[in-house]
Amino acid sequence: MHISTKCSVAIHCLIFILEYGDTQKVTSDLLSLSTGINPATIRKILSSLKKDGIIFVKFGTGGTTLNCPPNEITLYRICKAIEPDFASKLIGLHPFPSPLCPIGKNIHDVLDCSYQKISNDLCESLKNITLENIISDYHHIQHNPD
Amino acid sequence: MHISTKCSVAIHCLIFILEYGDTQKVTSDLLSLSTGINPATIRKILSSLKKDGIIFVKFGTGGTTLNCPPNEITLYRICKAIEPDFASKLIGLHPFPSPLCPIGKNIHDVLDCSYQKISNDLCESLKNITLENIISDYHHIQHNPD
DNA sequence: AATGGTGTAAAATTTAAAATTACAGGAGGG
DNA sequence: CCCTCCTGTAATTTTAAATTTTACACCATT
């Protein structure tokens, strides 16, 4: 039904890891301070990214590092990791159309035809943007404040 | 932050109007029965479509008709009519990143770069689908049940 | 064994969406 | 001309979803 803020938080975390991972131990508390998001939520997000192989989280002692090059991490991959069926929930369906009406009976199938296409297009669009692109935007903005 | 179910309801209504508008007076109560959505909500949706010139609603006596050919009614137009800034709310932003962190301070601008592109792509995708296409899907499904 | 982490689940809170209720006002038929 | 059926719209309540909070078991390193 929508792409949650968790996706934005995930990107924020990934930038942080990339920028500061070398010099600091990146913990959920630290990321919580930077993002303004609860540490428990951060850990849940990191856990999803970890399962997908995007990052590596050191258990016990703590600390997080990237697990693959930024140009292989697409927005699609991030969204998918955070919310596996985000694409099919893009547009909400009304839950109880009347089965007695020819249109109500078929509306979900009809909408699926179009929503499927839109969902595919969106996925392609998300695949075109990588963490590398985003990092480059970040550096650009950071050095050209206005 | 997401495309609401109202968009799906709007499409449902438009199909209904196109299919039954000639033979019946299409009122908000009738659409409510078919969609399973409250008449007041239906009226709000129809009101938005009307403002955009997509349909014509007869005040007083009631009844709704299309106001332009189905091939000119794109999904983009419908979404825009229902929720003017749907495109910029596609992906949620975390509201309170720390202004003390270089990343937190810039994250919204950074994300906007990418989200803008995705938003544009989505709009293009939505412009590619018209009510005519959807009606054709409906007829196809209706005559080939499975 | 003490410290500072992660992983994760349950409960509470917050927020957003939708339904409900209510009513003023118009058009047309009897 | 008034009665009925309808629209437009605002205020309130309800419901549902997302997020936070709390809590605690478990792990690695010092």
What features would you describe in this structure?
- The structure is a homodimer of 146-residue chains.
- Chain A is mostly helical.
- Chain A has one domain (5-143): Winged helix-like DNA-binding domain superfamily/Winged helix DNA-binding domain (Arc Repressor Mutant, subunit A, Orthogonal Bundle), CATH 1.10.10.
- The first copy, chain A, is 58% helix and 4% strand.
- The first copy, chain A, has six helices and two strands.
- Chain A has helices at residues 5-20, 28-35, 39-51, 75-82, 102-127, 131-143; strands at 55-57, 64-66.
- A two-stranded antiparallel sheet of chain A has the order 1-2.
- In chain A, helix 1 (5-20) packs across helix 4 (75-82).
- Chain A is elongated.
- The interface between A and B is large, with 54 and 54 residues.
- The structure holds a DNA duplex (30 and 30 nucleotides).
Brief synopsis:
Chain A has 146 residues and is mainly alpha-helical.
Strand order of the largest sheet of chain A: 1-2
Shape category of chain A: elongated
Most extensive interface? A-B, 54 and 54 residues
Number of helices of chain A: 6
Helix content of chain A: 55-70%
CATH class of chain A: Mainly Alpha
Largest sheet of chain A: 2 strands, antiparallel
Per the CATH scheme, the topology name of chain A is Arc Repressor Mutant, subunit A
The CATH superfamily label of chain A reads Winged helix-like DNA-binding domain superfamily/Winged helix DNA-binding domain
How many distinct beta strands of chain A? 2
Order of helices and strands of chain A: HHHEEHHH
CA-CA gap between termini of chain A: 35 Å
Strand content of chain A: under 5%
What is the CA-based Rg of chain A, rounded? 19 Å
Architecture of chain A in CATH?
Orthogonal Bundle
